[in-house]
């Protein structure tokens, strides 16, 4: 159905009287019917191709998928040059293998000494930290003991002061009670003396 539509559109494009007459005259001038028919077929094919090139579905269908290039694939699969380690590069620049061995031994000795120095430094740091922690614990225990002793002393002093205050209050209460008794006894004695005087006066 799609191809029929394209043929109709291409046929319509060639039904123009002016273009058709010009084509016939050219073919007659060439005095060969085969050339005229070949030209017509070529024009129709070009028109169909032009119409198809504007159709998205046809373009997607007729587009050739990219294929792998053997040369490109070979280049990608070839082993890459690995950047040499600096020590390997240095070893290749040194012609004398003994000199390289001495240099490598010197480097290893430096690395070993650096590791040992770092280990000693780390051990010293750990030791100092432990000593600081131990000193902190001892100081904390000492301060805690001192605070406990001060609290006990304060509690004892407070208890002693409370005992003294209680004793004073008891003594004061006893003295006040004694004064009250003596005062009452004195007042009672005065009342009795006055009563006796009044009694003697009345008898006279």
Report mean pLDDT, rounded to a whole number: 74
Please report the distance between the alpha carbons of the first and last residues: 173 Å
The shape, in one word, is: elongated
* Quantity of strands, as a count: 0
Please state the oligomeric state of the protein chains shown: single chain
SSE run: HHHHHHH
**Helix-strand category:** mainly alpha
Helix content range: over 70%
What fraction strand?
under 5%
Please compute the radius of gyration using only Cα atoms. Answer: 65 Å
Q: Which stretches are poorly predicted, pLDDT < 50 over at least 5 residues?
A: 9-17
Individual helix count: 7
Reported for the largest beta sheet, the result is: none
Coiled coil: 112-146
Biased composition (Basic and acidic residues): 1-11, 178-198
Keywords: Coiled coil
Region (Disordered): 1-21, 59-83, 173-204
Secondary-structure topology with pairs:
Elements: H1 2-13, H2 17-29, H3 33-53, H4 56-62, H5 70-77, H6 86-93, H7 97-203
Helix pairs in contact: 1-3, 2-3
């Amino acid at each position: 159905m799609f191809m029929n539509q394209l043929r109709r559109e291409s046929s319509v494009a060639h039904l123009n009287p002016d273009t058709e007459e010009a084509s016939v005259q050219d073919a007659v001038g060439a005095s060969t019917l085969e050339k005229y028919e070949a030209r017509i077929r070529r024009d129709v094919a070009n028109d169909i191709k032009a119409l198809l090139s504007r159709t998205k579905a046809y373009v997607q269908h007729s587009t050739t998928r990219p294929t792998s290039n053997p040369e490109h694939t070979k280049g990608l699969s070839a082993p890459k040059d690995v950047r040499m380690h600096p020590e390997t590069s240095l070893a290749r620049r040194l012609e004398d293998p003994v000199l390289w061995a001495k240099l490598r031994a010197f480097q290893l000795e430096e690395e070993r000494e650096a590791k040992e120095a770092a280990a000693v430094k780390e051990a010293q740091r750990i030791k100092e930290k432990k000593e600081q922690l131990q000193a902190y614990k001892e100081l904390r225990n000492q301060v805690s003991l001192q605070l406990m002793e001060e609290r006990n002393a304060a509690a004892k002093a407070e208890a002693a002061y409370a005992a003294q205050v209680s004793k004073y209050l008891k003594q004061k209460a006893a003295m006040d009670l004694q004064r009250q008794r003596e005062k009452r006894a004195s007042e009672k004695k005065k009342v009795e003396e006055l009563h006796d005087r009044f009694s003697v006066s009345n008898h006279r």
